[in-house]
Design goal:
The protein is 35% helix and 20% strand. With 373 residues, it is of the alpha+beta class. It is globular, with a radius of gyration of 24 Å. The strands form four sheets. A five-stranded antiparallel sheet has the order 8-3-5-4-12, sandwiched between helices. The chain has helices at 4-19, 25-36, 73-86, 101-109, 111-130, 185-203, 212-215, 229-237, 277-285, 307-316, 323-331; strands spanning 44-49, 59-60, 92-98, 141-149, 155-164, 166-168, 174-176, 220-224, 250-254, 257-263, 270-276, 296-300, 349-355. It has a domain at 87-243 and 295-331.
């Protein structure tokens, strides 16, 4: 099955010849890291058995770039386990907030400023509206994850938000919100649009958007997660530490063409997109975020500073607290197999002979003979 790294190796030179003068530093680094990931160019080490002293085959290091589809499997599962321990035995809501096409263009040109403003405006509008007595009248918690792509890899920044249906009142009491939606979508999107406008006017005073960008209705979705919050977490986790798509979606890659599969979000019908190798790489790399940008953010009761309040709520709801975490643990993929010595089968392998990225790997050492001479 073709992989993203195979497409990058085949089309990397052509892509660089066309786009290298205009590539962002984050895009250059992502391309370099993906090509070097788990190869001698990335560095590695030679494991040595602690029992019999046999050197093992070279182990090449991962690039750990968040645009790489090969990395972060264990890190993703660790994040999922941690978020499962934060869940409450209450209903959850899933909200998606998008921006107008004009704002998308500006976000593409000023990624760090505009994408941060989108996440800040989304959090501020949601938590401000939740303080209204008509829509809860207290503090809520939210987990926000920024996505910048459609299923066809087009540029489309939007925010996914997972929210427990718990409202903490000013007097310290809490209630479980009973509605199908935590806050009404239309007022939420209107407030989001206004707050983002204010932020961009302050942060990008030299950029003027057409009036239509702020007068048209923006698309937002809100639903109650009847299937359980762990399903939404598992969906978000796929893209928290990785690139915009996995290798599984590549159906064909040959003769300078790449065919990727997707499922329409509205009709749920499968479809395909055929792209040139260069266009596939351009679409893929454009979703590499600026270095140091936080695409996952926690607010309100889910913020790190309020973990004590969250844990207090868990204790009060103790009878059902671990159900979601248990379900997620049962659905977790099996851990990777433990490496064993090629000579004696021991699992006590110790890393030796480390070499760094750009250095030449050591010659493969010979192990002791299988039988005494």
């Amino acid at each position: 099955m073709p992989k993203v790294v195979d497409i990058f190796r085949d089309g990397g030179d052509a892509y660089l010849s066309e786009f290298e003068p205009h590539m962002l530093p984050s895009h250059r680094r992502a391309l370099s890291d993906i090509l070097a990931c788990r190869t001698p160019a990335m560095g590695g080490h030679v494991p040595v058995c602690a029992d019999c002293g046999t050197p093992q085959p070279h182990v090449y290091h991962s690039c750990r770039n968040r645009a790489c589809p090969q990395c972060h499997v264990q890190r993703t599962q660790k994040w999922l386990d941690a978020r499962a321990r934060d869940l409450l035995p209450v209903p959850y809501y899933h909200i998606i907030m998008t921006v107008s096409p004009d704002v998308r263009v500006v976000a593409r040109q000023h990624q760090e400023v505009v994408l941060d403003a989108i996440m800040c405006a989304a959090a501020a509008s949601l938590h401000t509206l939740a303080l209204d007595p008509r829509f809860g009248g207290g503090r809520i918690g939210s987990l926000m994850v920024l996505h910048t792509w459609t299923r066809a890899l087009m540029w489309h920044p939007h925010v996914h938000i997972l929210i427990p249906a718990v409202v903490m009142r000013s007097d310290g009491t809490w209630v479980v919100h009973p509605g199908r939606a935590l806050v009404p979508t239309q007022p939420l999107m209107k407030m989001f649009r206004g707050k983002l406008n204010d932020l961009l006017q302050r942060r990008l005073p030299g950029v003027t958007l057409p009036p239509a960008a702020w007068s048209t209705a923006w698309v937002g979705k809100s639903r109650r997660c009847d299937e359980g919050p762990e399903k939404v977490l598992q969906y978000l986790a796929r893209y928290v530490f990785r690139g915009p798509m996995s290798d599984r979606r590549i159906l064909q890659a040959e003769n300078g063409r790449v065919v990727i599969g997707y499922r329409d979000s509205e009709t749920q019908k499968p479809g395909t997109v055929t792209l040139s190798t260069t266009e596939f790489m351009r679409r893929y790399l454009q979703h590499t975020l600026p270095r140091g940008f936080h695409k996952v953010r926690y607010h309100g009761l889910w913020a790190p500073a309020n973990r004590r309040i969250l844990y207090s709520l868990q204790l009060q709801m103790a009878p059902g607290m671990l159900e979601a975490a248990d379900r997620m643990a049962r659905n977790a993929p099996p851990p990777p197999p433990v490496p064993t010595c090629v000579h004696c089968g021991s699992t006590r392998l110790q890393p030796r002979h480390l070499w760094l990225r750009g250095q030449k790997p050591p010659a493969q050492a010979r192990g002791p003979p299988l039988t005494p001479p």
